[in-house]
Amino acid sequence: MNEEPQADPADTATPSGSPSCSVCLDFDWAEEDAESTGDLSLATDWRVLRRRHDKAEHPERAARFRSG
Ligand SMILES: [Zn+2]
């Protein structure tokens, strides 16, 4: 037995908050862009849409990160 404790590649590839899903990344980008331009209501809209997408497309992750 000579197993070294190594991080799961899948975990390192998808750190929390940085999903590999391009749709999620689009939502993240759109939210940040809206915030950077001071359009906070639009940023909130993107956040809501992103959560909706999470529930629909990533039910496992949505359940794991249910904090609101
Ligand atoms: Zn996604």
Structural commentary:
The structure is a single chain. The chain is mainly α and 68 residues long. It has a domain at 20-64. Mean pLDDT is 79; it is low at 9-15. It is built from four helices and no strands. The structure holds zinc ion (ZN). Zinc ion is lined by residues 19, 21, 23-24, 53, 57-58.
Secondary structure layout plus pairing:
Elements: H1 9-13, H2 22-36, H3 40-57, H4 59-64
Helix pairs in contact: 2-3
Residues 19, 21, 23-24, 53, 57-58 line the site of zinc ion.
Distance between the termini: 43 Å
Helix content: 55-70%
Q: Count of DSSP E strands?
A: 0
Tally of separate helices: 4
Low-pLDDT stretches: 9-15
Largest sheet: none
- pLDDT averaged over residues: 79
| Helix vs. strand class | mainly alpha
Amount of beta strand: under 5%
Which value, in Å, is the CA radius of gyration? 15 Å
Q: What's the overall geometry?
A: elongated
Order of helices and strands: HHHH
Give every kind of bound small molecule, once each. Answer: zinc ion
Summarize the structure.
The chain is elongated, with a radius of gyration of 15 Å. The chain contains 4 helices and no strands.
Can you give keywords for this protein?
single chain; 68 residues; mainly alpha; 4 helices; binds zinc ion
